[in-house]
Target: Coiled-coil domain-containing protein
Amino acid sequence: MEEREKRKIIAEEKHKEWVQKKNKQERKEREQKINKEMEEKAAKKQEKEYLQEKAKEKYQEWLKKKNAEEYEKKKREKEKEKQRQAELLEKKEIAERKFKEWLENAKNKPRPAAKSYGYSSGKLTGFYNGNCYPEPAFYNPIPWKPIHIPPSKEVKDLPGKKSKRPMASQPHRSSVLAIHKARGNLGLGTLCRIQR
Model:
């Protein structure tokens, strides 16, 4: 019985030791796990901060480059505007100089004698009239001649009958085109065929 009691006590002590050892091991593992998680979080945070810093630097570089480009663009535009203003001023000065030269030369040129007559409806009026057209500067020396149109086949004589009168004297209907303007619309005219 004593031996059994001793064994029981020893077993209980061993069991207690084992439980304590197990608890200690579990606590250690838990602490290691927490430490690992903390380290991972810290590493992630550090990486995130590094990436943000890099992005900030890149943005600053891009902004600097963009501002430099804008400055260069404005500078070029100012130079172009300055050049355009200079060209306009130069053109203006040349035009004024030419005008003054023309004005000086125009004083010395002989003036043509004023015409004391005018033309109205193609006829000389014989007196000066401001409402009449001036004398034509050019006229066509070759007079207008009508275009010869051969007689149509309808007008020719029939094969069985012979006419004593020549072809030109025979009456035939000819049509003439005339332009009629409507009273309401003076700009547009209508073409109609007048039979005679």
User: Anything to note?
Assistant: Residues 4 and 110 are 157 Å apart (CA to CA). Residues 168-196 have pLDDT under 50 and may be disordered. Strands lie at 119-120, 123-124, 175-181, 189-195. The first strand starts at residue 119 and ends at 120.
